[in-house]
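Work Package 4 report. The design task specified in the project plan requires that, given a folded chain encoded as structure tokens, an amino acid be chosen for each position. We show below one input record used in the internal validation round.
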């Protein structure tokens, strides 16, 4: 699951049964995306002038 779709009235309907157990939903400029969170790591959302430009996943593991 990546991109989500708004209906004709600007509503976003998400079935939580279809989502990963740990995820984030990001909405910007009329677009919505869902991304699964890594088990160990960070998910960075980079913005520019108030708009989402990039979503970056950084993973790691315990030593």
């Amino acid at each position: 699951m990546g991109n989500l779709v708004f209906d004709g009235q600007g509503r976003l309907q998400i079935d939580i049964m279809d989502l990963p157990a740990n995820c984030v939903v990001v909405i910007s400029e009329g677009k919505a995306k869902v991304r699964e969170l890594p088990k160990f790591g960070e998910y960075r959302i980079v913005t520019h002038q108030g708009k989402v430009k990039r979503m970056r996943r950084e993973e790691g593991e315990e030593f």
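Residues 4 and 14 are 8 Å apart (CA to CA). Validation will be extended to a larger panel in the next phase.
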